[in-house]
Amino acid sequence: MVSRVFHQIWEQLRGKRASYKYFLEEVRIQELRGIKDLRVPFTYPVSVIAGPNACGKSTVLFSAACAYKVPQAGVREFTPPSLFPNFKVAAKEFSDNPPHTILEFYYQQNSEKLQMRWSRSTKGWN
């Protein structure tokens, strides 16, 4: 009985998704902090990020924040350089192939699927 009620509420909320103009569907993180390659889907209406200390929860949240422009926030407040200020890729640590950090965002805007990407090499974010 409880699971049926929960399922009905979940489906009602999922039905409202189409009425939103834009929403984040997924973040992909490559070579950032301790994360090698991670895909994080945001299942509407609820997504939970849980785990022990130092497993990457904040990295996922900060990465997701980079997908948003917050009204009245400074232009640099929600960008990788501001959310990961001490992040550096040292080329000398890697002989042939330094890691290339990538944050990819998949979202919908007015039913159109869009993608945005931040990348960082030894020279900085772009």
Structure in words:
It is a single chain. It is built from 3 helices and 5 strands; from the N terminus they run αββααβββ. The protein has 126 residues and is an alpha+beta fold. A 5-stranded antiparallel β-sheet has the order 2-1-3-4-5, covered by helices on one side. A hairpin with a 2-residue loop joins β3 and β4. The chain is globular, with a radius of gyration of 17 Å.
Short description:
With 126 residues, this protein is an alpha+beta fold. It has three helices and five strands, in the order αββααβββ.
**Count of separate DSSP helical elements:** 3
Evaluate the radius of gyration. Answer: 17 Å
Query: Low-confidence segments, ≥5 residues, pLDDT <50?
Result: none
Fraction of residues in helix: 10-25%
Q: Note the beta-strand portion.
A: 25-35%
* Number of E-type strands: 5
Distance linking N and C termini: 51 Å
Described by strand count, sense and barrel closure, the largest sheet is: 5 strands, antiparallel
Instruction: Specify the structural class.
Output: alpha+beta
Order of helices and strands: HEEHHEEE
In the sheet with the most strands, the strands line up as: 2-1-3-4-5
Globular, elongated, flat, extended or rod-shaped: what is the shape?
A: globular
By oligomeric state, this entry counts as single chain
What's the topology here?
Elements: H1 2-16, E1 22-32, E2 35-41, H2 57-65, H3 80-83, E3 101-109, E4 112-121, E5 124-125
Antiparallel strand pairs: 1-2, 1-3, 3-4, 4-5
What are the defining features of this structure?
single chain; 126 residues; alpha+beta; globular
